[in-house]
Amino acid sequence: PFKLSIRGLYKAYGDAVALERVTMDVLTGEFVTLLGPSGSGKSTLLQLICGLVPPSGGRLFIDGADRTQASAAERDIGVVFQNYALFPHLTVGENVAFPLRIRGLERSVILRRMEAALGMVGLTGYTERMPSELSGGQQQRVALARCLVYQPSLILMDESFSALDRNRRLVLQDEVRRIHRETGTTFIFVTHDQEEAMTMSDRICLMNRGRVEQFDTPRALYDTP
Ligand code: ADP
Ligand code: ADP
Protein backbone atom coordinates (compact mmCIF):
# COMPACT_ATOMS: atom_id res chain seq x y z
CA PRO A 1 0.00 0.00 0.00
CA PHE A 2 1.19 3.51 -0.85
CA LYS A 3 1.37 5.95 2.01
CA LEU A 4 2.42 8.79 -0.23
CA SER A 5 1.91 9.12 -3.96
CA ILE A 6 3.43 12.08 -5.76
CA ARG A 7 2.41 12.77 -9.35
CA GLY A 8 4.19 15.41 -11.43
CA LEU A 9 4.73 17.67 -8.44
CA TYR A 10 6.96 20.64 -9.16
CA LYS A 11 7.91 24.04 -7.82
CA ALA A 12 9.14 27.16 -9.56
CA TYR A 13 10.00 30.52 -8.04
CA GLY A 14 9.41 32.92 -10.92
CA ASP A 15 11.59 31.62 -13.75
CA ALA A 16 13.74 29.50 -11.43
CA VAL A 17 12.71 25.88 -11.12
CA ALA A 18 13.51 24.67 -7.60
CA LEU A 19 12.08 21.19 -8.26
CA GLU A 20 11.42 19.54 -11.61
CA ARG A 21 8.33 17.35 -11.93
CA VAL A 22 8.58 14.48 -9.46
CA THR A 23 6.57 11.27 -9.62
CA MET A 24 7.16 8.73 -6.88
CA ASP A 25 5.50 6.44 -4.36
CA VAL A 26 6.54 5.89 -0.77
CA LEU A 27 5.23 2.68 0.79
CA THR A 28 3.58 2.45 4.19
CA GLY A 29 6.24 1.89 6.84
CA GLU A 30 9.10 2.61 4.48
CA PHE A 31 12.20 4.64 5.44
CA VAL A 32 13.08 6.86 2.49
CA THR A 33 15.97 9.32 2.34
CA LEU A 34 16.26 12.34 0.06
CA LEU A 35 19.98 12.59 -0.70
CA GLY A 36 21.72 15.27 -2.71
CA PRO A 37 24.04 18.28 -2.59
CA SER A 38 22.98 21.71 -1.38
CA GLY A 39 20.55 23.33 -3.80
CA SER A 40 19.38 20.02 -5.32
CA GLY A 41 15.77 20.50 -4.23
CA LYS A 42 15.56 18.32 -1.10
CA SER A 43 14.08 21.01 1.15
CA THR A 44 11.69 22.10 -1.56
CA LEU A 45 10.36 18.55 -1.97
CA LEU A 46 10.05 18.20 1.80
CA GLN A 47 8.19 21.51 2.10
CA LEU A 48 5.80 20.43 -0.67
CA ILE A 49 5.15 17.10 1.06
CA CYS A 50 4.34 18.68 4.41
CA GLY A 51 2.34 21.50 2.84
CA LEU A 52 4.47 24.42 3.98
CA VAL A 53 4.68 25.76 0.43
CA PRO A 54 2.12 25.34 -2.37
CA PRO A 55 3.25 23.43 -5.50
CA SER A 56 3.37 25.10 -8.91
CA GLY A 57 1.74 21.98 -10.32
CA GLY A 58 1.11 18.29 -9.82
CA ARG A 59 -0.68 16.29 -7.16
CA LEU A 60 -0.01 14.62 -3.85
CA PHE A 61 -1.99 11.76 -2.31
CA ILE A 62 -1.75 10.46 1.25
CA ASP A 63 -3.36 7.08 1.89
CA GLY A 64 -5.12 7.41 -1.47
CA ALA A 65 -6.74 10.78 -0.69
CA ASP A 66 -5.81 13.85 -2.71
CA ARG A 67 -4.09 16.18 -0.24
CA THR A 68 -2.64 18.61 -2.79
CA GLN A 69 -4.74 21.46 -1.41
CA ALA A 70 -4.69 20.38 2.25
CA SER A 71 -3.03 22.57 4.84
CA ALA A 72 0.03 21.38 6.72
CA ALA A 73 -2.10 20.59 9.79
CA GLU A 74 -4.60 18.51 7.78
CA ARG A 75 -1.89 16.25 6.37
CA ASP A 76 -1.14 14.43 9.61
CA ILE A 77 2.61 14.74 9.05
CA GLY A 78 5.20 15.32 11.76
CA VAL A 79 8.28 17.38 10.92
CA VAL A 80 11.60 17.49 12.76
CA PHE A 81 13.50 20.54 11.56
CA GLN A 82 17.25 20.99 11.51
CA ASN A 83 17.12 23.65 14.25
CA TYR A 84 14.78 21.62 16.54
CA ALA A 85 12.36 24.56 16.93
CA LEU A 86 11.57 23.68 20.55
CA PHE A 87 9.71 26.26 22.61
CA PRO A 88 12.51 27.66 24.80
CA HIS A 89 10.21 28.84 27.61
CA LEU A 90 8.47 25.46 27.99
CA THR A 91 9.86 22.42 29.81
CA VAL A 92 10.73 19.26 27.89
CA GLY A 93 7.47 17.68 29.03
CA GLU A 94 5.40 20.71 28.02
CA ASN A 95 7.12 20.77 24.63
CA VAL A 96 6.29 17.13 23.97
CA ALA A 97 2.74 17.47 25.31
CA PHE A 98 2.06 20.56 23.21
CA PRO A 99 0.64 18.83 20.09
CA LEU A 100 -1.79 16.88 22.33
CA ARG A 101 -2.79 20.00 24.28
CA ILE A 102 -3.81 21.83 21.14
CA ARG A 103 -5.79 18.75 20.11
CA GLY A 104 -7.66 19.02 23.41
CA LEU A 105 -6.88 15.55 24.77
CA GLU A 106 -7.60 14.61 28.34
CA ARG A 107 -4.88 15.47 30.87
CA SER A 108 -4.19 11.90 31.98
CA VAL A 109 -3.95 10.74 28.37
CA ILE A 110 -1.57 13.60 27.57
CA LEU A 111 0.66 12.70 30.52
CA ARG A 112 0.81 9.02 29.64
CA ARG A 113 1.55 9.59 25.97
CA MET A 114 4.08 12.32 26.74
CA GLU A 115 5.98 10.00 29.05
CA ALA A 116 5.80 7.13 26.55
CA ALA A 117 7.19 9.36 23.79
CA LEU A 118 10.06 10.57 25.99
CA GLY A 119 10.78 6.96 26.92
CA MET A 120 10.94 6.01 23.26
CA VAL A 121 13.73 8.53 22.63
CA GLY A 122 15.62 7.62 25.80
CA LEU A 123 14.70 10.72 27.82
CA THR A 124 12.68 9.24 30.67
CA GLY A 125 13.01 11.56 33.68
CA TYR A 126 13.72 14.71 31.62
CA THR A 127 10.17 16.04 31.87
CA GLU A 128 10.96 19.06 34.07
CA ARG A 129 14.17 20.11 32.28
CA MET A 130 14.39 23.17 30.05
CA PRO A 131 15.55 22.82 26.42
CA SER A 132 18.53 25.12 27.11
CA GLU A 133 19.88 22.60 29.64
CA LEU A 134 20.10 19.86 27.01
CA SER A 135 22.76 18.95 24.46
CA GLY A 136 22.03 19.28 20.75
CA GLY A 137 21.41 15.56 20.46
CA GLN A 138 19.00 15.59 23.39
CA GLN A 139 17.11 18.56 21.93
CA GLN A 140 16.83 16.67 18.67
CA ARG A 141 15.35 13.74 20.60
CA VAL A 142 12.79 16.02 22.24
CA ALA A 143 11.82 17.33 18.81
CA LEU A 144 11.36 13.74 17.62
CA ALA A 145 9.33 12.85 20.73
CA ARG A 146 7.08 15.84 20.03
CA CYS A 147 6.32 14.25 16.64
CA LEU A 148 5.94 10.69 17.89
CA VAL A 149 3.50 11.73 20.62
CA TYR A 150 0.60 12.31 18.22
CA GLN A 151 1.39 9.29 16.06
CA PRO A 152 1.40 10.97 12.65
CA SER A 153 1.14 8.79 9.57
CA LEU A 154 4.41 10.19 8.25
CA ILE A 155 7.46 11.78 9.89
CA LEU A 156 9.78 14.08 7.94
CA MET A 157 13.26 14.84 9.24
CA ASP A 158 15.19 17.68 7.58
CA GLU A 159 18.99 17.49 7.98
CA SER A 160 18.19 16.69 11.57
CA PHE A 161 21.62 15.43 12.59
CA SER A 162 23.86 17.72 10.58
CA ALA A 163 24.63 20.02 13.53
CA LEU A 164 25.71 17.11 15.74
CA ASP A 165 29.20 15.65 16.19
CA ARG A 166 29.87 12.25 14.62
CA ASN A 167 29.29 10.14 17.75
CA ARG A 168 25.99 11.76 18.62
CA ARG A 169 24.95 11.43 14.99
CA LEU A 170 25.65 7.68 14.94
CA VAL A 171 23.77 7.14 18.21
CA LEU A 172 20.76 9.06 16.92
CA GLN A 173 20.81 7.19 13.62
CA ASP A 174 20.50 3.95 15.60
CA GLU A 175 17.71 5.37 17.74
CA VAL A 176 15.71 6.57 14.78
CA ARG A 177 16.06 3.23 13.02
CA ARG A 178 14.90 1.44 16.16
CA ILE A 179 11.91 3.79 16.49
CA HIS A 180 11.12 3.24 12.83
CA ARG A 181 11.12 -0.54 13.38
CA GLU A 182 9.11 -0.39 16.60
CA THR A 183 6.43 2.05 15.48
CA GLY A 184 6.16 1.15 11.80
CA THR A 185 5.88 4.86 11.03
CA THR A 186 6.75 5.95 7.50
CA PHE A 187 9.83 8.21 7.50
CA ILE A 188 11.23 10.61 4.94
CA PHE A 189 14.66 11.78 5.95
CA VAL A 190 16.74 14.51 4.28
CA THR A 191 20.52 14.46 4.27
CA HIS A 192 23.51 15.36 2.11
CA ASP A 193 25.55 12.60 3.80
CA GLN A 194 25.76 9.49 1.60
CA GLU A 195 26.94 7.22 4.42
CA GLU A 196 24.04 8.32 6.60
CA ALA A 197 21.60 7.68 3.75
CA MET A 198 23.02 4.22 3.14
CA THR A 199 22.81 3.05 6.74
CA MET A 200 19.36 4.52 7.43
CA SER A 201 17.28 3.86 4.35
CA ASP A 202 15.08 1.27 2.75
CA ARG A 203 15.29 3.39 -0.39
CA ILE A 204 17.24 6.49 -1.38
CA CYS A 205 15.88 9.25 -3.60
CA LEU A 206 18.96 10.68 -5.27
CA MET A 207 18.50 14.36 -6.14
CA ASN A 208 20.54 16.75 -8.25
CA ARG A 209 19.78 20.18 -9.72
CA GLY A 210 16.09 19.98 -8.89
CA ARG A 211 15.65 16.51 -10.36
CA VAL A 212 15.13 13.05 -8.94
CA GLU A 213 17.91 11.16 -10.69
CA GLN A 214 17.40 7.73 -9.12
CA PHE A 215 15.12 6.16 -6.54
CA ASP A 216 16.24 2.75 -5.38
CA THR A 217 17.65 0.67 -2.53
CA PRO A 218 21.13 1.56 -1.17
CA ARG A 219 22.35 -1.78 -2.50
CA ALA A 220 21.10 -1.15 -6.02
CA LEU A 221 22.56 2.37 -6.00
CA TYR A 222 25.99 1.79 -4.50
CA ASP A 223 26.98 -1.86 -4.83
CA THR A 224 29.33 -1.92 -7.77
CA PRO A 225 29.45 -5.37 -9.36
P1 ADP B 1 19.24 24.09 2.69
O1 ADP B 1 20.28 24.09 1.61
O2 ADP B 1 19.64 23.35 3.91
O3 ADP B 1 17.89 23.75 2.17
P2 ADP B 1 19.07 26.91 2.36
O4 ADP B 1 19.87 27.87 3.14
O5 ADP B 1 19.40 26.62 0.93
O6 ADP B 1 19.10 25.57 3.21
O7 ADP B 1 17.54 27.33 2.41
C1 ADP B 1 16.92 27.68 3.60
C2 ADP B 1 15.55 28.26 3.27
O8 ADP B 1 15.67 29.34 2.34
C3 ADP B 1 14.62 27.26 2.61
O9 ADP B 1 13.32 27.43 3.17
C4 ADP B 1 14.62 27.60 1.14
O10 ADP B 1 13.37 27.32 0.53
C5 ADP B 1 14.90 29.10 1.18
N1 ADP B 1 15.69 29.49 0.01
C6 ADP B 1 16.70 28.82 -0.54
N2 ADP B 1 17.18 29.45 -1.62
C7 ADP B 1 16.45 30.57 -1.74
C8 ADP B 1 16.45 31.65 -2.67
N3 ADP B 1 17.27 31.69 -3.72
N4 ADP B 1 15.57 32.66 -2.48
C9 ADP B 1 14.72 32.61 -1.46
N5 ADP B 1 14.65 31.63 -0.56
C10 ADP B 1 15.51 30.61 -0.70
P1 ADP C 1 18.41 21.69 -0.95
O1 ADP C 1 17.44 21.49 0.15
O2 ADP C 1 18.75 20.42 -1.67
O3 ADP C 1 19.62 22.43 -0.51
P2 ADP C 1 16.50 23.61 -1.92
O4 ADP C 1 15.23 22.86 -2.11
O5 ADP C 1 16.66 24.43 -0.70
O6 ADP C 1 17.71 22.57 -2.07
O7 ADP C 1 16.73 24.55 -3.17
C1 ADP C 1 16.62 24.10 -4.53
C2 ADP C 1 16.77 25.30 -5.43
O8 ADP C 1 15.62 26.13 -5.32
C3 ADP C 1 17.96 26.17 -5.10
O9 ADP C 1 18.49 26.66 -6.31
C4 ADP C 1 17.34 27.28 -4.29
O10 ADP C 1 18.11 28.47 -4.38
C5 ADP C 1 15.98 27.43 -4.92
N1 ADP C 1 14.99 27.92 -3.95
C6 ADP C 1 14.56 27.26 -2.83
N2 ADP C 1 13.66 27.98 -2.17
C7 ADP C 1 13.51 29.13 -2.86
C8 ADP C 1 12.72 30.30 -2.68
N3 ADP C 1 11.89 30.44 -1.63
N4 ADP C 1 12.83 31.29 -3.60
C9 ADP C 1 13.65 31.16 -4.66
N5 ADP C 1 14.42 30.07 -4.88
C10 ADP C 1 14.36 29.08 -4.01
UniProtKB/TrEMBL annotation:
Top-level division of the source organism's lineage: Bacteria
Annotated ABC transporter domain residues: 4-225
Keyword rRNA-binding attached: no
UniProt-recorded Gene Ontology molecular function terms: ATP binding
Swiss-Prot/TrEMBL keywords: ATP-binding, Nucleotide-binding, Transport
The name this protein goes by in its record: ATP-binding cassette domain-containing protein
